[in-house]
Amino acid sequence: MITPDTKDWTWVLQRPCADCGLDTPSVAREDVPAMVRANATAWVARLAELPDERLRRRPRPDVWSDLEYACHVRDVFRLFAVRLDLMLTQDDPLFANWDQDETAAAEQYGSQDPGLVAVQLAEAAERLAQAFEAVAGEQWQRTGGRSDGARFTVESFARYLIHDPVHHLFDVTGTRV
To answer: Exposed, middle or buried, 169 (CB in 10 Å: 0-12/13-18/19+)?
Structure first.
């Protein structure tokens, strides 16, 4: 059983991640689209290279499998595209809550087709990368927030986003950025 992650990861906007090595505060907002694409490419390769049984195997009962992490990253890309659109089209929107663990169970991440997940992840990453590339000028300072009180500008949102897929690639490969 997966123990829900209840940590507030917004600290990554203040200092580098000791685990994955990403120095999120130093990421240039203009670099985020390329980083999203590169991350997606790494996930797609992993989904293609590893045998199905290996992709589905959890290293421990309380840790997601590579496939489950890939599904999560796909859904993070999708969710952040929606939230970015809200920030660009509404004044200071409040994001709906998202329970990643509930989604993983409801969508049966561990049973999904790795080939289809790879296609969906790449498509979601490309949509998100293009959406960030379209942000210009004062749009970077538009705001939005979560119900837990976390507040973001589009710029800080971009930096916050990129840590998640980078960190999860580290979770499955052990390779730091």
So the answer is: buried
Q: What gap in Å lies between CA 55 and CA 70, rounded to an integer?
A: 10
Q: Are 92 and 144 contacting, i.e. CB atoms less than 8 angstroms apart?
A: yes
Spatial CA neighbour of 143 closest among 125, 126, 156: 156
| Alpha helices (H) in the chain, listed in sequence order | 32-49, 52-56, 66-89, 100-106, 114-133, 154-173
145 SS3 class: strand
DSSP 107: T
Summarised one tens digit per residue, pLDDT across range 93-112 is 999 999 999 999 999 999 99
Per-residue pLDDT at 4 exceeds 80? no
User: Each residue of 117-136: pLDDT tens digit?
Assistant: 999 999 999 999 999 999 99
**Does this model's pTM top 0.85?**
yes
Distance, in Å, from the CA atom of 31 to the CA atom of 28, rounded to the nearest integer, reads 5
